[in-house]
Amino acid sequence: MKEVNGKQFEIAIDAKTIDKIVSTMAVSISNDLKGTKPIFIIVLNGSFIFASDLIKQISIDCEVAFLKVTSYRGTQSIGEVTKVMELTEKIEGRTIVIIEDIVDGGNTIEYLYNTLKSHNPKDIKIATLFFKPQTYKKNIPIDYAGHNPGNDFIVGYGLDYDGLGRNSMEVYKLKQ
Ligand code: IMP
Ligand code: MG
User: How many CA atoms lie within 13 A of 84 on its CB side?
Assistant: First the structure.
């Protein structure tokens, strides 16, 4: 049990399990994208811990770039996405991999996909640690999805509740 911003959360996924999910994804990405020298686009703030653990285990040549968007307030998505930081690298003609912490309704990933597509990359892949396919409303394919947390609102390992709760090795879910 732990309290984040006045709400009670309980453990949902332990550190070892997350580790396994991340390692498996790193192997898949490394195999699939061999020879493409991908640029990993790390979407701040939520995916910084996941991206760090993932990229350490990527075994092919790659680069990283950062982008910051916001869309979420409290435990409900507000739908509208705002870019608050410009992309730090040139992606034209390159294979890019968008690194997200979680894809829920899909507004954020759709916005990111369309924004990045306008910079003419050669290929766009999406890698997210958590994916809620049951609430996903878009058609953009999610190439790498680590785990389905069900309908729970989760925090930890980079994910937040109103800015708090990112700092843990495990993931917690809102207590019903
Ligand atoms: P979407 O635009 O509805 O797909 O929401 C995606 C964004 O909302 C993610 O990048 C997260 O920042 C946030 N989000 C969605 N679900 C959760 C959750 O369960 N916990 C914490 N943040 C979430
Ligand atoms: Mg996010």
Answer: 11
